[in-house]
């Protein structure tokens, strides 16, 4: 009985990992439009293209995705949108070292 449960667990875990990986790839592939400051989510989270807080930038936030060094990158907070690496929003959280 334990072997069956363990096998099912491993199948589910593997499927979940693949789904999360492909989901992240899909998010990056679909993010094409730069976020506008009047976007309702941007307004709600006080997003700005240039951070006024020293050391708090989209580029060092845990939600940023894509390659380092790009000016506009996908963000998990704004699906389908690109944020400025120099930007900031109230959901900012320091990227783990």
UniProtKB/TrEMBL annotation:
Domain spans labelled High potential iron-sulfur proteins family profile: 29-97
Residues making up the signal peptide according to the UniProt record: none
Pfam family, one: HIPIP
A biological process from GO: aerobic electron transport chain
InterPro entries: High_potential_FeS_prot, HIPIP_sf, TAT_signal, TAT_signal_bac_arc
Keyword list, A-Z: 4Fe-4S, Electron transport, Iron, Iron-sulfur, Metal-binding, Signal, Transport
Molecular function, one GO term: 4 iron, 4 sulfur cluster binding
Function description: Specific class of high-redox-potential 4Fe-4S ferredoxins. Functions in anaerobic electron transport in most purple and in some other photosynthetic bacteria and in at least one genus (Paracoccus) of halophilic, denitrifying bacteria.
Name of the protein in its database record: High-potential iron-sulfur protein
Organism field: Brumicola pallidula DSM 14239 = ACAM 615
Phylogenetic classification of the source organism: Bacteria, Pseudomonadati, Pseudomonadota, Gammaproteobacteria, Alteromonadales
């Amino acid at each position: 009985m334990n072997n069956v449960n363990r096998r099912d667990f491993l199948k589910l875990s593997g499927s979940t990992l693949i789904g999360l990986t492909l989901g992240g790839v899909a998010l990056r592939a679909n993010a094409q439009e730069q976020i506008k400051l009047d976007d309702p989510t941007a307004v709600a989270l006080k997003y700005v293209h240039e951070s006024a807080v020293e050391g708090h930038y989209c580029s060092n936030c845990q939600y940023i995705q894509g390659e380092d060094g790009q000016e506009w990158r996908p963000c998990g907070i704004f699906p389908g949108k690109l944020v400025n690496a120099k930007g900031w929003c109230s959901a900012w959280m320091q990227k783990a070292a």
